[in-house]
Amino acid sequence: MLPALALAAQGVDPHDSSLSPSERLEALIQRVEAEQSQVETLEATFRMVRESDLLLEPQESTGVLHYQAPDRVRWEYETPDPMILVIADGELTTWYEDLGEAERASIEPYSQRALQFFNASSSVASLLDYFDARLRAPEAAGSGEGLESEAWRLELTPADDRVARRIRSVTLWIDAQRYLPVQVRLEGADGAVTQYVLEEQRTNIELAEDLFLLELPAEVEVRTLELPGS
Predict the structure, then answer these.
(1) Three-class SS string for the chain?
(2) pTM score, two decimals?
(3) By percentage, how much of the chain surpasses pLDDT 90?
(4) What local confidence, expressed as pLDDT, does residue 50 receive?
(5) CA separation (Å) from 11 to 14, 23, 30, 194?
(6) What per-residue confidence (pLDDT) applies to 111?
(7) What CA–CA distance (Å, rounded) separates 213 from 169?
(8) How far apart are the first and last CA of the chain?
(9) Ranges of residues in the chain whose predicted pLDDT is under 50
(10) What is the pLDDT of residue 3?
């Protein structure tokens, strides 16, 4: 297998049919990380769907995602229940607007781990420290229609027992043209599934300066949480 830096320096195209599976995976990761390194800001609409044995039917939420390099993220859930989640300056704030409640927690001790799940530019390569990967090219990913034919599909299964106790699988769909993630599916060890779809992505646009400063109304009850490991 070619070293990752060698692949990057040579500008290897993941679509190159002469690549071995391992070389193709390395080439794709390098291309994704190269594209992500150019993202200073991002705005996208998102759709989140949750499924589990405890739910009578899938639950769908929609909203808007904003990201600013290197570590500021805002998830604004609009339907069905308004909620805002902001990660900024080592702190996680969640505001449940309809309940008039909010939660704050420091994520400084393990901010990198938290940001891997919430950050729009989290490292795909870092996931391979904990997962085994199988890559499917766009032309082989499905029926030839829609997202399945327009995106690389990276299927991850835990290679670490500690991860396997919580996660059964992770699937990432990566746009074949822009090389940015457009969908992620997370299946928990209990069989519950959470899936995010990012649409209408716009990168390197100007964002409002106060977007990641979540000013809560005076009447909102704020609870301070201590997250595990803090």
Answers:
(1) CCCHHHHHHHCCCCCCCCCCHHHHHHHHHHHHHHHHCCCCEEEEEEEEEEECCCCCCCEEEEEEEEEECCCEEEEEEEECCCEEEEEECCEEEEEECCCCEEEEEECHHHHHHHHHHHCCCCCHHHHCCCEEEEEECHHHCCCCCCHHHHEEEEEEEECCHHHHCCEEEEEEEEECCCCCEEEEEEEECCCCEEEEEEEEEEECCCCCCCCCCCCCCCCCEEEEECCCCC
(2) 0.81
(3) 57
(4) 93
(5) 9, 12, 9, 34
(6) 45
(7) 34
(8) 39
(9) 1-9, 109-121, 143, 229-230
(10) 45
Residues 204, 40 contacting (CB under 8 angstroms): yes
Whole-angstrom Cα distance, residue 86 to residue 91?
A: 8
Q: How far is CA 22 from CA 14, 25, 126, 128, 185, in A?
A: 11, 5, 16, 12, 23
CA 198 to chain centre: 9
Q: Using CA atoms, how far apart are residues 145 and 5, in angstroms rounded to an integer?
A: 34
Q: What is the pLDDT of residue 6?
A: 46
Q: Between the CA of residue 47 and those of 30, 62, 159, what are the distances in Å? A: 27, 4, 29
